[in-house]
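User: Hey, quick favor. My workstation is busy. Could you predict this chain's structure for me?
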Amino acid sequence: MIIVIDGPAGSGKSSTARAIADRLDIEYLDSGALYRTVTLIYLEVNRDKETFFHLLDQKKISFYYEDQKFHVAVDGQSVTDKIRTTEVTDAVSEVAAIPSVRSFVNDLMRDVVLDGIYIAEGRDLGTAVFPDAELKFFMSADLEERAKRRLKERRKDNPGLTLKEIKQSIAERDHKDSQRESDPLKIADDAIEIDTTNLTFEQQVDKICLMISEALKEIE
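Assistant: No problem, here it is.
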């Protein structure tokens, strides 16, 4: 069974999906981490696309969720921390927009969810990757609120960061995600929309967990 949460940057989908996985004791799948992993490979070959695509077919990417952290390895070597660098963050939109990269990551995710119950979050899961998902959610919040949340997350590592810079970055990411040619960000027709602008973190987790629990009971 696969449950998906889509939404724009800063909507809270990643932290919410992890909390739901922990509370309901189900598996968590971080699509963003997989795109970051592919981006890391791209940067390590100095953005040489020919070499990158050749390597991509040879690399073994493995991943698992444990202790509230999504772990990723390439050829048996952990890259969990490496994929969170600023360099990777700045390049991931560029790499994720490449159609063949999206197909590669989509196949990775589809292969792993054949057994068990998973909750996955991303930007096109309900429309492109898992159109037949048992439950689909689309989380959103207004730009100001999303920027405040993202600033709170990053201020510790970057004390000079401003709300204005974060808002601009998120707005640019929203535009890229919604306008890209391959699998743009949009709400699936059968998705349940959750506006988190005025919800606390616990409220949004409670709301989605209740709907998932009810769906699981029906399956049982």
